[in-house]
Write a structure and sequence with these properties.
The chain is an alpha+beta fold. 19% of the residues lie in helices and 29% in strands.
Length: 247
């Protein structure tokens, strides 16, 4: 709690206006910027929305009706599990999320392939704090797997990389953002995440304040909804919720 209050105090001293994380210049100039609604307040009956994207009520537990063989169901170490469905005007994705998972329980072959960043293979027995999610399309035919380290684990050595991938070898790398627009940092604190496909930043999510999402407008509608779901999965973690209420 002391760390959270310190971060809030430092953010308050940096500017009179609400501070904002640094975002890739191309994404700022041409991207879709969407303030997040529904992140603050009670977790009961919580819904999240931004732009044209909106969620169902967040279930702080598992959806029982999904037929996919989720390895997440068997995770004993996770102390937070939740699920929700994200919609746009036409389609939907459902996310099943588990937080505070031990690396020993993660089947890495679901997340990485030979082209994955080397840092990703550092997830292992020593990793004690992982956030992971399965994201399915509305027909449950295609599953994306989200995997990121939580702040308290990677802060030890400063190394970090996450991934959003599927079994068709499509892969989006997730990298932390620690810099404000003014170029200042707050120690090693994460302010948000960038999503990179190849060398291009295609989306970003700010986890401080009420939250903000940026998306590349050139993406197809399915990819936009996928990233919106991944951003929501990250934003709905209760420990991040506690931090945002203190800033």
């Amino acid at each position: 709690m002391k760390k959270i209050l310190l971060v809030g105090a430092m953010l308050g001293m940096l500017a009179c206006t609400t501070p904002r994380m640094s975002v890739d210049s191309q994404l700022i100039n041409s991207g879709i910027v969407m303030p997040v609604q529904g992140r603050q307040g009670w977790l009961m009956n919580q819904k999240i929305s931004f732009g044209k994207f909106y969620s169902s009520k967040v279930s702080r537990g598992w959806l029982k009706s999904y037929k996919y063989d989720f390895f997440l169901v068997g995770l004993e170490g996770a102390n937070e599990k939740y699920s929700f469905t994200m919609y746009d005007e036409k389609n939907s994705f459902t996310a099943l999320c588990a937080n505070k998972v031990k690396g020993l329980e993660i089947p890495l072959d679901r997340f990485v392939n030979n082209n994955s960043p080397d840092n990703l293979f550092s997830f292992g027995i020593q990793t004690k704090d992982v956030f992971t999610s399965n994201i399915l399309d509305e027909n449950q035919n295609k599953c994306w797997n989200l995997l990121i380290l939580n702040p308290d684990d990677f802060r030890k050595d400063g190394k970090y990389v996450g991934v959003l991938s599927n079994n068709e070898y499509e892969e989006i790398v997730i990298l932390p953002v620690r810099t404000l627009q003014e170029g200042k940092t707050i120690g090693k604190e994460i302010l948000g995440f960038e999503f990179k496909e190849g060398e291009k930043v295609i989306g970003a999510v700010e986890i401080i304040n009420k939250g903000t999402v940026w998306l590349d407008p050139s993406l197809d509608e399915n990819k936009k909804l996928l990233l919106a779901t991944a951003c929501s999965a990250i934003l709905l973690q209760s420990d991040l919720h506690a931090q945002v209420d203190s800033i």
